[in-house]
Amino acid sequence: MGGLNRNYQIDDDITPIVKEMTQEAINLFEGSAGESGPSQFTDEATAKEVLGTEGTVASGRMSLTFAIEMLRRYFGADVFNHSGMVDLRFLRPVRPGDTITFSGKISGISKEANGSKISVAITAQNQKGDTTGVGQGSAIVPNAYLPPED
Amino acid sequence: MVEADNKILLDWDALEVGETFEKYEYVLTQEMIDTYRKGVMDLEAGFPTIAHKVDVKQYNAKYRDNGSVNARCAFYCYSPPIAGNKITVRAWITDKYLRRGKNYIVTEAVSVDEDGRLIDRVITHELKQPSEVGKKWGG
Known about the structure:
heterodimer; A: alpha+beta; Thiol Ester Dehydrase, Chain A; 26% helix; elongated; B: alpha+beta; 5-stranded antiparallel beta sheet; 3 helices; 19% helix
């Protein structure tokens, strides 16, 4: 996936992504880093002990990953993987069985040395409509990917 | 790395902003990348380093506490890591703050691969009273 030529405007919507959270996905995420011991993410008893919750929760870093995916798909990997960022605050837990929708809207455009910084307001909501995370992301889109100026 | 038995009990008041941890090195394998991509349901996911939680790894190796909850996390993408490359991480305490009676620690880490490529930067705000969120979340 390369950079995408696009005309960016404030309030443009970003194409949302939807993720079905499962315990298996959480276990794979945690296990990918070689973590095999029980944690609040993978073990109900540990979650009860550490958090006081009745079940496991997903790491906030999974939500961060999904927000990054949304912006990478929007800006293109050539752009986002080299200049992108996401900053998320985690407001509510994401649990196995939840369906989380990540959406975004362009909130700012500013000139940089070799392109434009496009900022995006990001929201994550579960299937009940509760907001699980909010934040912002951005990428610096090179001039070559922008329409020529008048 | 400090052994588990020698961990220091966290004294939040005494913790110094700017404390830099021992460098952490690991080899990112293709299996790690494949497992990560399967877990996040994205076959093009470029930064499996996110799952390694490298910003808190050395903190957790040095200190023991009551656990934590990730309250906020920022991730900066510079170059997707390459399978088989050794990655070196530098991490430090970048801030700490008290909000609504709860203690937070902010850690920051920068990852560079064996070819000197800057991979990513991550900044995490961790709440150090995790049982508080359990109460808020309603179990």
